[in-house]
């Protein structure tokens, strides 16, 4: 059963931010415009911009402010700019009129120096919600996106957590992701009835904090 879909990342983010238990796990997020980009770079130093609609890591760009200049990285290429205006013009040509979000960049825990994040699939079958899978995705060397369609490597969640932290943290981190998954599903299905499958993208930062990067309603 396909069920309903909800493509807008912004609509889902706003719904989750309305819940006091979930909101602290969502990286600060704003709609893309030059003013928001400038202030978020000033506050966070590194941000990620991504299309409001779309998946598979396509169109995701890392943007940094460093040493008085700016840069953006997409795939394995980094482009540097001496002024914010020049950066803005380059990003505008990349966006090509599409709506984008800006999200605070999170320094993820790594496996062998490569960032890892997690995909949790949660689906409704026969009227009941169940976990389909919980896996770690390690970025291809040189990339910051972990998507398998872009060369990422899949591990079990337990392997990912034990390799990037320790075996002793596996149980508690998996429990926390499950709790956030169930709470977020309750919020999203109350706000958008008819959704029946979710793919949650989680990151665990270097300090062990869990972040929800996005929620897909047509998970691959």
Label the structural class: alpha+beta
Order of helices and strands: HEHEEEEHEEEEEHHEE
Widest β-sheet, arrangement of strands: 1-6-2-3-4-5
**Mean pLDDT score:** 91
Radius of gyration: 17 Å
Instruction: Report, as a whole number of angstroms, the end-to-end distance.
Output: 14 Å
Short précis:
28% of the residues lie in helices and 34% in strands. The protein has 5 helices and 12 strands.
Task: Outline the fold blueprint.
Elements: H1 9-17, E1 29-31, H2 34-44, E2 46-51, E3 61-66, E4 69-74, E5 77-81, H3 84-95, E6 100-104, E7 110-111, E8 114-125, E9 128-138, E10 153-156, H4 157-164, H5 170-191, E11 197-204, E12 210-216
Antiparallel strand pairs: 1-6, 2-3, 2-6, 3-4, 4-5, 7-8, 8-9, 8-11, 9-10, 11-12
Helix pairs in contact: 4-5
Overview of the structural elements:
There is one protein chain. With 220 residues, the protein is an alpha+beta fold. 28% of the residues lie in helices and 34% in strands. It contains 5 helices and 12 strands. The protein has helices at 9-17, 34-44, 84-95, 157-164, 170-191; strands at residues 29-31, 46-51, 61-66, 69-74, 77-81, 100-104, 110-111, 114-125, 128-138, 153-156, 197-204, 210-216. The strands form 2 sheets. Strands 1-6-2-3-4-5 form a 6-stranded antiparallel sheet, sandwiched between helices. A hairpin with a 2-residue loop joins strand 8 (114-125) and strand 9 (128-138). The longest helix is centred in the C-terminal third of the chain and has 22 residues, at 170-191. It starts with 8 loop residues before the first helix and ends with a strand.
